[in-house]
């Protein structure tokens, strides 16, 4: 929920700055105001639903917008990528901080926490139907994530930010539309996470049932806490990394494996038990080392700043390393027309 708030604030603030006649320094288009406004007007009302099935049409809209965003990112890889300087060792397979990326990727695929809610929302919930649904969803998600990651890195290489849209220039109208779609998507996805948080609180503290009054109170408290934390943090990268190593890794690798080993009556030589014995320690190592590296070696964040390649006149002054690119040959190419 914190991640979604940060994304909404970062992306939509740049969208509103493109409105003709609007002062970029206007308080009402700042990320803090947008986070607060989106919380009050959209995420909180949607999160107050009691039945997760009512979010079905909203999720469909979000999926359609994701397809639009994907097309925009792919288009900009072709039109913008050749004009962005490539960083040194851009094509090295992995570096020491790759372990932090495992946490981020795990966070992208985590769906375990809302599986029970989604399963119970099916018209005829059966294991066979659920299996088909979850496998199709994961395959589609992998496909989308691979395209996003590949196109983003091909375009910006080592300059790629935790929030990919932070890499694009503000005067890019096509990307501005993509930012708007992206902001709407995360706002519409936010209630899914709030449903899970509220469900956990209800099960732990209220025996699984919340009266209407407590339903509203718990929802407001959860959404408010997430909003306040979002206002204090302005860098998405560190949030994704910590979410990944502290939440996603345990939920995906550690806890399911431990539960299976504890509850399964299969012999120790069974393939599933062997796999669990392998996955559990790997997850524990990634969690510990990922957390240490995320804290001691945080990702650089250029929140709210234009990247150097958005200023062609200053391009040669921004990069001091000749190994990054041949700057002088690109000065005549990299101009505002690239982004129109």
From TrEMBL:
Gene Ontology MF annotations: L-amino acid transmembrane transporter activity
Q: Which InterPro entries match?
A: AA_transpt_TM (IPR013057)
Does the keyword field hold Membrane?
Answer: yes
Every copy of the Amino acid transporter transmembrane domain together lies at 1-294
Gene symbol here is SLC38A11
- Organism phylogeny: Eukaryota, Metazoa, Chordata, Craniata, Vertebrata
**Record-stated family:** Belongs to the amino acid/polyamine transporter 2 family.
One Pfam assignment: Aa_trans
Subcellular location as annotated: Membrane
Q: What is this protein called?
A: Putative sodium-coupled neutral amino acid transporter 11
């Amino acid at each position: 929920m914190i991640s979604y708030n940060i994304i909404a604030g970062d992306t939509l603030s740049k969208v509103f700055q493109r409105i003709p006649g609007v002062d970029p320094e206007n308080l009402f288009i700042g990320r803090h105001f947008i986070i607060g406004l989106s919380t009050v007007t959209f995420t909180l009302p949607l999160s107050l639903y009691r039945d997760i099935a009512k979010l079905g049409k909203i999720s469909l809209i979000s999926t359609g917008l994701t397809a639009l965003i994907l097309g925009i990112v792919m288009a900009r890889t072709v039109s913008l990528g050749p004009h962005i300087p490539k960083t040194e060792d851009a094509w090295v397979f992995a570096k020491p901080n790759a372990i932090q990326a495992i946490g981020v990727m795990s966070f992208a695929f985590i769906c375990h926490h809302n599986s029970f809610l989604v399963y119970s929302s099916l018209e005829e919930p059966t294991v066979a139907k659920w299996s088909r649904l979850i496998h199709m969803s994961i395959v589609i998600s992998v496909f989308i994530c691979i395209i996003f990651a590949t196109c983003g890195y091909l375009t910006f290489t080592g300059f790629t930010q935790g929030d990919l849209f932070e890499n694009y220039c503000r005067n890019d109208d096509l990307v501005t539309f993509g930012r708007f779609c992206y902001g709407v998507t995360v706002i519409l996805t936010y209630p899914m996470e709030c449903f899970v948080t509220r469900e956990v609180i209800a099960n732990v503290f209220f025996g699984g049932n919340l009266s209407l009054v407590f339903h509203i109170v718990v929802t407001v408290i959860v959404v408010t806490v997430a909003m306040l934390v979002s206002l204090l943090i302005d860098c998405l990268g560190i949030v994704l990394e910590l979410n990944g190593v502290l939440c996603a890794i345990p939920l995906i690798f550690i806890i399911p494996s431990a539960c299976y080993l504890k509850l399964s009556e299969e012999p120790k030589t069974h393939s599933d038990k062997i796999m669990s014995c392998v996955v559990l320690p790997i997850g524990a190592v990634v969690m510990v080392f990922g957390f240490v590296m995320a804290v001691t070696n945080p990702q650089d964040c250029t929140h709210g700043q234009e990247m150097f390649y958005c200023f062609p006149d200053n391009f040669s002054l921004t990069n001091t390393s000749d190994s990054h690119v041949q700057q002088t040959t690109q000065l005549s190419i990299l101009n505002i027309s690239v982004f129109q």
